[in-house]
Amino acid sequence: MSGLEQWNWYLDGWIIVAGILCAVSSALLGNFLVLRKMSMLGDAITHAILPGLAAAFMISDSRSSLPMFLGAVIAGILTALFTEWIRGFGKVDEGAAMGVVFTSLFALGLVMIVQAADHVDLDPGCVLYGAIELTPLDTILIAGWEIPRVVVVLSIVLLINLLFVIFFLKELKLSSFDPALATTTGFNSTIIHYALMTLVAITAVASFETVGNILVVAMFIVPPAAAYMLTDRLGTMIVISAILATLAAATGHISAITVPRWFGYQSTSTAGMMAVAAGLLFAVAALFAPRHGIVVVLIRRQILAWKILAEDIIALMYRIEERNPQLKPDATYLREILFSQSVPTSLTLRYLTKHGQLSDSNGNYELTETGRDHARQLVRSHRLWEHYLVEHAGMSAENIHKQAEKLEHFTDRQLREKLNEDTIATDQDPHGRPIPPEEKTN
Amino acid sequence: MNNKQNPAHTPQVELPPEETPVSVYDLTVAYHRKPVIWDVSFEIPPGKLVGIVGPNGAGKSTLIKAIMGLIPKASGRVQIFGKPYQKNRHRVGYVPQRESVDWDFPVDALDVVTMGLYKEIGWCLPVRKKHRARAMEALERVGIADYAHRQISQLSGGQQQRTFLARALVQNADLYLMDEPFAAVDAATEKAIVQILQEMKQAGKTALVIHHDLQTVPEYFDYVILLNMRVIDHGLTAEVFTPENLQKTYGGRLTLLEEATETMRRREQSL
Predict the structure, then answer these.
(1) Which structural domains are found in chain A, ordered by start?
(2) With an 8 Å Cβ cutoff, are A187 and B70 in contact?
(3) pTM score > 0.90 for this model?
(4) What is the ipTM of this complex?
(5) Contact A177 B126 (CB under 8 A)
């Protein structure tokens, strides 16, 4: 029972199209909400359009589109204005100001809608969570094609948003990044701000029949937030956010049909699943983002830990050789000095042997020529640093070993040369041990 | 109380107003009715490097923001080359304080510099190759062309500051306002910035620079404004940058004045 045997290309196709249109038009604007750190304002506006919608219902006594649109857009813009005012007058920070404005307006809207529901054919649940499943039922004829009304409306909104982002990309970028420069160079960032907020309100109104008043916030914020983690470039971020929004809408609808059936339930809300899918995509981005992704950071840290262990081992071998050239230590001997775990140590020893830095004769290890070269450079770095720390950083000889132990792993030849210039007067570290030369001496 | 300040040390040659880069008359700016700068008046001569010094909270950034019309004035008047800021803003370049920049914003150094040309490009028109080439030239001039495509958080403090300096350069302004360009930069960058300031000066430009390091003031600036809520003194560095003036600026934080304002504010609020 996958649920897909009831798949109907006409019905489900239109639902997915509506979902994608809604998600992409929201995500386009959402990029700038995220970058301006105004996600909360997006949230506030989408909630606060509710009383506007309700008032329009009550006045026009119908679900006709134009008054609804106007009422809601006005309410949305008022939210943005009120937020500014309260912040200016009341010494309240922006978050609190928005909390005050949008919960009050939202509650007012809810009260009005429950009232209106007695007179008008209007379901509060549908306002809040949308009714994307009903999309294909309400169609209009365009050039002989029966196209769902919602799809037509959302296409127009998507087009407007797309044109806005394309034509004002430069202005949006500047006013988001540096509103001061924008204003002082004549790109009035207040105007750009309210243009953006107006479009957010329009998009939210257009989306409310699809994903509802609450879930549209997810469409605004989640795909751009995920895209933000995946790239360093604004253009790429916008494109990725649109792709993620599309994915979320499509997988959202498909999983709304299929997933509940795996557990023996009926299909669930597509809008809800779209938001869940967006959330999952965000989680994947958070895990695997190239620079700050959790998994990537873990892997990078692990690789670094292994690299350091490998270097510690060969540096130790070098020091052992210095004291007693006859001694060929085994794994246990090394582990006792390095306080390292047995599995990583033996793995690293195997790695070093395989890469020709160590030679292994029945569990007793010895540096190869290559290994000795590498080790000498490490020990050289270590002792140069010790010398430098005492001489230039004013540290005492007892405290420097740990520091130098860390620094030696991040010191390249160039840095060693600079250190060497500072320590030209000596070839001994502060503990009286020789600083080995950069190149092998015969 | 002595309300009239700023004894003029040098009898200045009267310049026509359109040649005075900045003139500020009786400027007062307040946040929530608490004045941050109070009755500030000064004029700066053209073609000079002008330092603004004063303790934290003296209102230095506020002064620059008020000059640019970014925050409302409680009273007073600001003129840029003899006209209100709005009329002459094309002649002003600006380097923001590093704390006010969102370093994680998805832009690279070249993008940031290009922003200095947006005004010239105009509304809705795209950035073209020639604009990017000019931005690149500016990055070369400040010595970080190699880092043009690094996201700005991936630059060192000095490189970040140079990026914003390059942006000011492409603006090709006559007056530059800089909010602590020397903050968190390495010695090489500091040298490079000074060098560029000197070049600007040679080209007849004026720079108004907020500066923290008192030791370098006489070396870097021809003219200095000592600010602590009000202007303690302003004039040629050699004349006004004296121990007594510094004592007045940094020691004793104008306690009486502060107290009086505080009382005034409370009384007004309780009305």
Answers:
(1) 4-289 (1.10.3470.10), 297-367 (1.10.10)
(2) no
(3) no
(4) 0.84
(5) no
